[in-house]
Design brief:
427 residues; alpha/beta; Rossmann fold; 2 domains; six-stranded parallel sheet; 46% helix; elongated
């Protein structure tokens, strides 16, 4: 009988259904999704083949709704499929209720169908999602399944040590591994939650999934210096602070421009943006939510991307990688993985008004000496990040899709329960 897993059937058709629900955001320009690969079916005529190898249980939110994490999850699913993984997909996207139902379905399927030699990949939702995954992780431990927890939020570190993450780690025991987005994020998480045990963590940059695919960028057109910012516009993303910085630059006599893009659900912030557009006609522009050709035009129209984020969840912003790949330099605040991804420490914002005014002026002055050299350096920078990410992936993916012989013994439920207190003390 075919296995219905989450909201998608793990087969050629099912995988296409799971991955085709949202258009590739990076299909144009320098970033692109991998083409949707065929996946080895594990039902019907191919069930015998799938049973001869370990399954990879994939539990994470796929679009819709579309956000940074669901976007990365979709790309990870494709990456596993290109490696011919025998996927067991459980999509937990949507509302809080659908997340809960998705986790319950995953727990039920694991209890009934998993084998000790299987592997599991878990993409933890932000904030309260960690609590939701604790019983799932506990079941994986009791089943003897090695499972990998992929972290897309810096919240457990910025606000840590967090009780929810401590519980998740305790429930997983020695069969739990963690995937972090940069070497520094890995080090800090390992020190905070894993007692410095590097063997239980690995790093994998999002650049592995969203890497540049061109060797050249167009020349900068003759135009006024233009700053830009694109995100889900919130105060935590630094939009209000950026408007203040830009007003300060105009007050100093700089005939520059600012382009903002992205949806804004905060009425007060939207009013502030509209007021800035009205106060500085011809200098401040708000373009709303963008995709496709409009998104490409945004990057083509700016010279410096400004990300003054204070978001507690901020980890490795994809928009930084997108900007670099298009030859656009970035200045950003020192939070999450940004220090690992910024071009130089001199591109880190201090979130202090006079200091950041001077920093932006200095970076524009440097770039104006040779725009082509700076644009090329940005592309080289993201290419080096991608090369490092490829090395990380070559080390990580075989652990997820390959099972060592000593892991292939059958599950023994009674001994697992008897061993639990000892495991809890040791790990």
């Amino acid at each position: 009988m075919p296995a219905i897993l989450g909201r998608a059937r793990v087969s050629h058709t099912g995988f296409a259904m799971a991955t085709a629900r949202v258009p590739p955001l990076f299909a144009s320009g320098l970033f692109c999704f991998m083409s949707t690969p065929a996946i080895s079916p594990i039902d019907g005529a191919s069930q015998e083949t799938a049973d001869a190898r370990s399954a990879l249980w994939f539990v994470g939110a796929l679009p819709p709704p579309l956000n940074g994490q669901s976007n990365c999850n979709r790309a990870m699913l494709e990456a596993f499929a290109t490696r011919n993984a025998a996927l067991r997909l459980h999509d937990i996207g949507g509302t809080n209720g659908s997340k809960l139902r998705g986790v319950v379905r995953a727990i039920t399927a694991l209890a009934l169908r998993s084998r000790r030699r299987d592997r599991a990949y878990l993409s933890i939702p932000g904030q309260n999602g960690v609590w939701l995954f604790a019983p799932l992780v506990l079941l994986l431990r009791l089943c003897g399944i090695v499972h990998y927890v992929h972290h897309h939020s810096f919240r457990p570190i910025n606000a840590g040590p967090a009780r929810a993450m401590r519980l998740l780690v305790a429930c997983g025991g020695h069969r739990q591994r963690h995937i972090l987005l940069s070497p520094d994020m890995r080090r800090r998480f390992t020190d905070m939650y894993l007692r410095g045990d590097d063997a239980r963590s690995a790093s994998l940059s999002n650049a592995y999934l969203f890497g540049p695919n061109t060797d050249t960028v167009p020349d900068r057109p003759n135009r006024p210096v233009t700053l830009g910012h694109m995100s889900v516009l919130t105060r935590e993303k630094g939009v209000s602070y950026l408007l203040q910085l830009f007003a300060g630059l105009l007050a100093q006599g700089h005939d520059w421009c600012l382009v903002l893009a992205g949806p804004c659900a905060d009425p007060a912030l939207r009013a502030e943006i509209d007021a800035a557009v009205a106060a500085h006609p011809g200098h401040v522009e708000y373009r709303g939510a963008l995709e496709g050709a409009d998104k490409e035009r945004f990057f083509a129209d700016i010279d410096l991307f400004v990300l003054a984020t204070t978001l507690v969840d901020e980890a490795e912003p994809l928009v930084m990688l997108e900007a670099f790949a298009r030859g656009v330099d970035v200045v950003a605040s020192d939070t999450g993985c940004i220090r690992d991804r910024i071009r130089t420490p001199q591109h880190l914002l201090a979130l202090e008004f006079p200091t950041d005014i001077a920093l932006i002026k200095a970076r524009i002055s440097d770039a104006a000496m040779d725009w082509s050299a700076v644009r090329g350096a940005c592309v080289d920078h993201v290419r080096s990040i991608k090369a490092a990410a490829d090395r990380e992936a070559r080390a990580l993916f075989p652990q997820l899709v390959t099972v060592r012989s000593h892991d292939c013994h059958p599950r023994r439920w009674p001994s697992l329960f008897l061993r639990w207190p000892q495991d809890q003390r040791s790990h």
